Amino acid sequence: MERTENWLGLAGRIAVVTGAGGGLGRAIAATLATAGARLVLLDRDAIGCEEAAAALRARGAEATAMKCDVTDPEDVAAAADHTAATLGPCQVLVNNAGLLRPGPIASLTLEEWNRLISVNLTGYFLCAKAFGRQMLERKQGAIVHVASIAGRHPQPWSGAYSVSKAGVVMLARQLALEWGPSGVRSNVVSPGLVRTPMTDAYYRIPEVAERRAGIVPLRRVASPQDIADLVAFLASDRAGYVNGEDVCCDGGFGRVLMGLVPRPGFEPRDPAEG
Fold first, then answer.
1. Which ranges in 139-246 belong to alpha helices (H)?
2. Which residues are the active-site residues?
3. Angle (CA) 220 253 274, round 5°
4. Which of 28, 90, 103, 258 has the highest Cβ tally under 10 A?
5. pLDDT tens track for 109-130
6. DSSP designation for 103
């Protein structure tokens, strides 16, 4: 568990990660554990969550797994109470649990709309409220919400996904404004293209993987670790004066618009040629 992340000052802090059984959640939990945090992993998938916790314990970290549906207020409250009773008050919360479903707005049912909003936005509210109360009592804490560049740029044929992620950004900003005076910070990480178990099927098609990497200025798709490193920074005291921010982590993908415009005489050239 020895890496240079010790400078983050997270050693001994109690960190809760939702959606911790998935690829991105596991990477975030592992990165916080490497920095010395004591982890509480929450996920609807009890088996996957316990597997993630067991992997961390095998590396010498302290990690507890709890089955939790973030859309259920009673589940969330029970997880918060159990954390406080067994480990102590939550000091870091990473709202990461998420859902993505295809669906055009024109034919989207109310049930489909509500399901995605309940996980991607309402779940964040419930967890922030339950675990944030513990931070407010101590007048110290950090919440990092994982959103998406889809919260800035509408992602078509994805139901309520973009709407939910845009809502996460505003929720985080409102928490930053209301809770900042009490010493609780709230920030957002908005990933771009990331290869996770949820998106892996896309990248198994070679031409799709190549095209996706090709539209990113850095010419690669992010790994979960790229996102996890940023989450850990925002959760730490090193980002102690960062509050209410939506930090994009997309390799420059969101800046490619003007590069798509045909402009004779301004063709790309090798930077090494000057």
1. 161-179, 200-203, 206-214, 224-235
2. 161
3. 80
4. 28
5. 999 999 999 999 999 999 999 9
6. B
Which range of residues forms the domain containing residue 196?
9-246
Identify the pLDDT of residue 274: 59
In a domain, 261, yes or no: no
Q: Is residue 173 part of a domain?
A: yes
Q: In Å, what is the CA distance from 260 to each residue of 194, 254, 257, 264, 268?
A: 22, 12, 5, 12, 11
| Percent composition of the chain: helix, strand, coil (DSSP 3-state, to 5) | 50, 15, 35
Residue identified by tokens 């989207």 is 108
DSSP assignment, residue 118? I
Please report, as a single letter, which amino acid is at residue 56: L
Nearest to 168 by CA among 198, 190, 138: 190
Burial class (CB in 10 A: 0-12, 13-18, 19+), 192: buried
User: Cβ neighbours of residue 85 under 8 Å, at least 6 residues apart?
Assistant: none
Q: List Cα–Cα distances, 262 to 217, 256, 268, in angstroms.
A: 17, 13, 11
pLDDT of residue 1: 43
Residues of the chain with pLDDT under 70: 1-5, 273-274
For 87-114, write each residue's pLDDT tens digit: 999 999 999 999 999 999 999 999 999 9
Q: 65 by DSSP, 3-state: which?
A: strand
- Residue 30, SS3? helix
CATH of the domain at 41: 3.40.50.720
Q: Where are the beta strands (DSSP E) in the chain?
A: 14-18, 38-43, 63-67, 92-95, 141-146, 184-191, 246-249
Q: What is the pLDDT of residue 273?
A: 67
